[in-house]
Recover the amino acids of this structure.
């Protein structure tokens, strides 16, 4: 081939390519119809199916490419508001999740001691019969509330919302409540009369000034948040990061404020003080949309920057300057609410302070601030009323209404028993206690669906004690995580790429629904969650709740209530959107977006005052680390989700184990250097497995930091077992937020012991 000939042919090919790419959209549309064939790619078949990602709780819309009955690739669905055609690294690794050789493949029935992995394989028929028999016995003997249901992952509808309610138990726990966002949702309900919901409603595209409190975007790798955050910075938005650690986000900030852990409420109060005393707040907005400002102005007077400086260890001048910068950018300034907000046990009040600061800047319902999300209204599949009214909410689930005693319309708990905290929704960690103490009444059975009991719930020794006492434990999972060893029956679920599921009904700027459909047949001998729930339901005498003849009929009936069908949803690209009402101007005269008792934003909360709580946020000091100990902080790695991805063959290759971040000067004082292996021992003498030291100036001297989810010990996970240290193992204590029931987990301290 001569050079001339090569260029000529290259030019022709390029011309052909341009022609083909002009065909792009119609060709893609053709391929996206199920069963389309590449004529030149005989005999394989490229199928594209629709899904929403379950590699974390963000639920990015996904296109799944299958060739010859095997998933070969996933990519972001361009029509989906949460992925916009992109997936993060974890989403891409969904293929490796599906084909993880360690996956559970057979129902298992326990043959020996709990905790010893003594099981025999069983048929589905036998396993389901036995599970239903055990659940029915507990229901008949002690009442349906004697069975607790723990559920998570994006498939948790069947075991966290539907079956437990049909069964009649109000004791449903999702880790995404008490161990994640309950204080934020409760604070938002009190202040705005509405929850924040699964998608933090930050109007990134219009914002000009961002203040991140904790909230480590970039390590916390929610796909569209990272896209939006990067675009906002590229458009010139200023960034302040408040974090004891020089996080990935802090690297992009024009100011990093290395706050003393646990003192954020003092900083928020001081910022409010500057805005109010210097008259920099949005007076017009406050008058029109809020109640209680005068009381706040009075309350805030002593909380000057000079008061906050020694508490937070941030200079008073810096506090004042940041407040003035915020005010100069209002209303296009935002302090995003964060997500994992259970920090120190006073978290509802910290979140109230954060919301009120946003309100003073007049940004709620305004461009560049916090927009007002909405969800589409689909009818449920018709069923008789449930014997109990409500299950606990969760990431993305409907927010549980505020239920402070005394509040008009406060519905009693279904079991008639008061709870330890004011707002009533059941939080997962508080359901462990009655399994041991029998108070306020005993819980004797547990169904655990997609919850990593030993990695997500604090105080592992207490969880083990509870598991020893339970009369029956059923676990439904995809991987042999360590808690499965404690189950009586284990049921292997098909992964999200192999199953239909409940529709994803998203509360968002653009309300939308998304479809999950199977890309391939479930690996033998696994089954989808909806099928397992139905089979158990039928065996439990709950046939009235499972009247649908097939999952397609179930989904079509729900879709019909908004004039859609499965086929129409597929034709629309797996996602269907409606117009939202994100800004205040979208609400007409006499219509309020803030359904509080006053119909306005409640800066001063009468409901909190009536229930005996501070009606305006106050700062409470937190316990200091004892001498020789560091405060244990923890967070995310962009390529792992909680404790569930450490075994993923692709992700484990890139980041196989965590490290403990220690301030470099403190490490030197302890004679430690980068890469040394240490054990961490907490205040109660509990020790982690060995973990490498990361000596770095990027963290304060009083704290150490671990990426959450590592340190699997006692699992059957071949790649994850024994790698790194578990933050959760070291969290033997937590402080219960008295308002929301959230478990503040940053109240544990560790010392470093060199491994010998
Ligand atoms: P936080 O735990 O609140 O998490 O993500 P975020 O809501 O961002 O924040 C962790 C940060 O807080 C760390 O940088 C830590 O140094 C800092 N910090 C610790 N103590 C303090 C303090 O006292 N004050 C301040 N100002 N900062 C402090 C959690 C979020 O991540 C959640 S809830 C979920 S469900 C998702 N999970 C997840 C995941 O598993 N993997 C990845 N890659 N991304 C995820 N994104 C989401
Ligand atoms: P994961 O480790 O993701 O965390 O708590 P979890 O949701 O419990 O556990 C998911 C479980 O579901 C695993 O057992 C996994 O194998 C299984 N699974 C995965 N896919 C499927 C499936 O398709 N079907 C079924 N049936 N099972 C499946 C998360 C929770 O943890 C949250 S939201 C937060 S924000 C808190 N974070 C946190 C922390 O940062 N540190 C500590 N120490 N504790 C925490 N607890 C909370
Ligand atoms: Fe999946 Fe990543 Fe989206 Fe989470 S952020 S749903 S892991 S693609």
């Amino acid at each position: 081939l001569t050079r001339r000939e090569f260029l000529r042919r290259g030019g022709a090919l390029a011309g052909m390519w341009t022609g083909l790419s002009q065909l792009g959209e119609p060709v893609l549309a053709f391929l996206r119809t199920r069963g389309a064939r590449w004529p030149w790619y005989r005999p394989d078949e490229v199928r594209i199916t629709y899904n929403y990602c379950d590699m974390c709780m963000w639920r990015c819309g996904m296109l799944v490419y299958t060739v010859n009955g095997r998933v070969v690739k996933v990519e972001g669905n361009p029509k989906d508001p949460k992925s916009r055609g992109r997936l993060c690294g974890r989403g891409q690794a969904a293929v490796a999740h599906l084909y993880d050789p360690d996956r559970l493949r057979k129902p298992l029935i326990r043959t020996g001691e709990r905790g010893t992995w003594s099981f025999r394989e069983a048929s589905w028929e036998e396993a389901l019969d036995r599970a239903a028999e055990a659940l029915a016995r507990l229901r008949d003997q002690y009442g349906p509330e004697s069975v607790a249901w723990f559920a998570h992952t994006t498939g948790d509808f069947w075991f966290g919302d539907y079956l437990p309610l049909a069964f009649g138990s109000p004791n449903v726990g999702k880790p995404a409540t008490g161990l994640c966002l309950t204080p934020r949702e409760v604070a938002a309900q009190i202040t705005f009369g509405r929850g924040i919901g699964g998608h933090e409603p930050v109007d990134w595209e219009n914002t000009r000034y961002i203040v991140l409190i904790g909230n480590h975007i970039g390590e916390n790798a929610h796909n569209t948040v990272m896209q939006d955050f990067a675009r906002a910075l590229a458009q010139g938005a200023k960034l302040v990061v408040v974090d004891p650690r020089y996080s990935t986000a802090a690297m992009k900030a024009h100011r990093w404020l290395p706050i003393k852990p646990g003192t954020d409420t003092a900083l928020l109060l001081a910022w409010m003080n500057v805005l109010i005393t210097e008259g920099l707040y949005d007076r017009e907005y406050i008058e029109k949309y809020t109640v209680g400002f005068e009381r706040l102005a009075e309350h805030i007077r002593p909380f000057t920057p000079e008061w906050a400086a020694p508490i937070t260890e941030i200079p008073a001048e810096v506090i004042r300057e940041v407040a003035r910068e915020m005010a100069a950018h209002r209303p296009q300034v935002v302090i995003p609410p964060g997500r994992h907000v259970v920090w120190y046990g006073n978290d509802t009040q910290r979140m109230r302070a954060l919301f009120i600061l946003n309100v003073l800047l007049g940004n709620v319902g305004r461009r560049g601030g916090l927009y007002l999300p909405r969800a589409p209204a689909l009818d449920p599949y018709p069923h008789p009323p449930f014997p109990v009214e409500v299950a606990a909410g969760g990431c993305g689930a409907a927010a549980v209404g505020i239920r402070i005693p005394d509040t008009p319309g406060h519905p009693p708990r279904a079991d008639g028993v008061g709870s330890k905290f004011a707002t009533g929704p059941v939080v997962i960690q508080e359901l462990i206690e009655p399994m041991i103490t029998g108070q306020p009444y005993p819980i004797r059975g547990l169904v655990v669906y997609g919850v990593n009991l030993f990695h997500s719930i604090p105080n592992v020794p207490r969880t083990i004690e509870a598991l020893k006492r339970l009369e029956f434990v059923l676990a439904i999972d995809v991987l042999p995580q360590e808690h499965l060893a404690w189950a009586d029956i284990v049921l292997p679920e098909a992964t999200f790429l192999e199953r239909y599921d409940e529709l994803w009904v998203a509360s968002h700027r653009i309300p939308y629904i998304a479809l999950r459909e199977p890309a391939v047949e479930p690996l033998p001998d696994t089954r989808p969650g909806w099928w397992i729930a139905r089979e158990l339901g039928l065996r439990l005498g709950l046939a009235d709740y499972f009247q649908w003849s097939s999952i397609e009929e179930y989904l079509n009936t729900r879709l019909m209530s908004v004039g859609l069908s499965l086929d129409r949803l597929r034709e629309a690209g797996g996602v269907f959107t409606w117009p939202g009402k994100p800004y205040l101007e979208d609400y007409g005269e006499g219509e309020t977006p803030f359904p509080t008792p006053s119909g306005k934003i409640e800066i001063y909360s009468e409901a909190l005052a009536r229930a005996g709580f501070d009606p305006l946020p106050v700062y409470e000091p937190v316990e200091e680390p004892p001498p020789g100990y560091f405060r244990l902080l923890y967070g995310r790695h962009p390529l792992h989700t909680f404790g569930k991805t450490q075994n993923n063959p692709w992700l484990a290759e890139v980041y196989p184990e965590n490290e403990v971040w220690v301030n470099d000067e403190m490490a030197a004082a302890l004679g430690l250097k980068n890469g040394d292996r240490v054990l961490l021992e907490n205040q109660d003498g509990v020790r982690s497995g060995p973990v490498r030291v990361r000596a770095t100036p990027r963290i304060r001297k009083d704290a150490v930091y671990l990426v959450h989810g590592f340190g699997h010990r006692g699992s059957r996970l071949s790649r994850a077992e024994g790698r790194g240290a578990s933050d959760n193992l070291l969290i033997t204590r937590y402080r219960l937020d008295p308002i929301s029931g959230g478990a503040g987990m940053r109240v544990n301290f560790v010392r470093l012991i060199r491994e010998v």
Summary: The longest helix spans residues 3-32. Residues 6-25, 33-42, 393-400, 406-414 have pLDDT under 50 and may be disordered. The radius of gyration is 26 Å. Residues 56-57, 180, 213-216, 220-222, 242-245, 247, 259, 261-262, 264, 338-340, 343, 395, 633, 635-638, 640-642, 705, 746 surround MGD (ligand 1) (CB under 6 Å).
